Amino acid sequence: MLVAALGTACSSAESGAPDKAEKAKTGKGAEAAAGALGTAAERQKAAQQARLAAVKKWRLAKLPLLAPAAPKEKPEIETRDGFEVYDHEEEELPPVFTTIPTEDKVVFLTIDDGAEKDPEFVKMMQELKIPYTAFLSDYLVRDNYPYFKGMQAAGVVLNNHTLNHRYMPGLSYEQQRQEICGQQDMIQKQFGKRPTLFRPPYGNYNQDTLLAAKACGIKAVPLWNAEAFTNRMDYREWDRDLHPGDIILTHFRGREDWKGTMPDMIRHVMKTVTDKGYAVARLEDYL
Q1: Fewest C-beta atoms under 10 Å: which of 34, 74, 108, 169?
Q2: Which is nearest to 88 in space by CA: 186, 203, 213?
Q3: Distance CA 137, CA 150 (A)
């Protein structure tokens, strides 16, 4: 009986030990989970406060809307009706388009050439976390590659806008190929990555342009559906409005060309976009 009692006592003690350990483990897990939730909430609050501070600092009229998460499946991009060239489909030439097919209420900001190199603009876009895509022409950027390297380091994708910004349909196929492939080589050499997007100067192109672009490794030719300035927006469509997926064009320009600066242009663009209920999304997330 004594042996049995001792055995029973040992058995009871042993069976209770795991319960205590499990409770302790569960308690620590709950504390860790609560701590993680608290940390995430704190991070979210801090990020929101930083955005509000940046909006105030850069004198935006409103807090920009946040873009939704990038789509899991990227939309199929086709050439816009009326923008085709001869044998476009048969030659499998890069699609030419002005809008990304999406139901998300987003637009995409693209900036061309590279003439103005305003450090305040880069700082503004970083602090506001507004995504944009650059299309560079070498004759305008070669005097300050580091400016655009800093932009790239902040997550901006640098794309092809030809070496010398010439009117492409006025050139031979070989001349166009030199303009496009030469800029591909330059961007790869200076910035380490060969572009897949190309925008022809002035938005003008012909079959040779797209044949040359394809030969140089270009996958798509985004044009634009609206153009932004410091004091207005110009629209391609008859309704003079923005639409889901519209690509907005603007330029690296300053007071020599505009009645204002690049930060002034961004303030106007963001007021227009936000007032209309749109967020600025990253173009490459949809291509």
Answers
A1: 34
A2: 213
A3: 17
- CB-CB contact of 278 with 100 (8 Å): no
Alpha-carbon gap, residue 14 to 33, rounded angstroms = 29
Instruction: Quote the distance between the C-alpha of residue 70 and its chain's center.
Output: 10
| Predicted confidence (pLDDT) per residue in 105-147, tens digit | 999 999 999 999 999 999 999 999 999 999 999 999 999 999 9
User: What's the CA gap between 50 and 127, in Å, rounded?
Assistant: 8
CB atoms within 10 A of CB 284: 17
Check: CB of residue 249 under 8 Å from CB of residue 226.
yes
Condensed to tens digits (0 to 9), the pLDDT of residues 43-59 reads: 888 888 888 999 999 99
The C-alpha atoms of residue 168 and residue 280 are separated, in whole angstroms, by: 30
The DSSP letter of residue 203 is: G
Sequence-distant (6+) residues with CB within 8 A of 54 are: 127, 128, 129
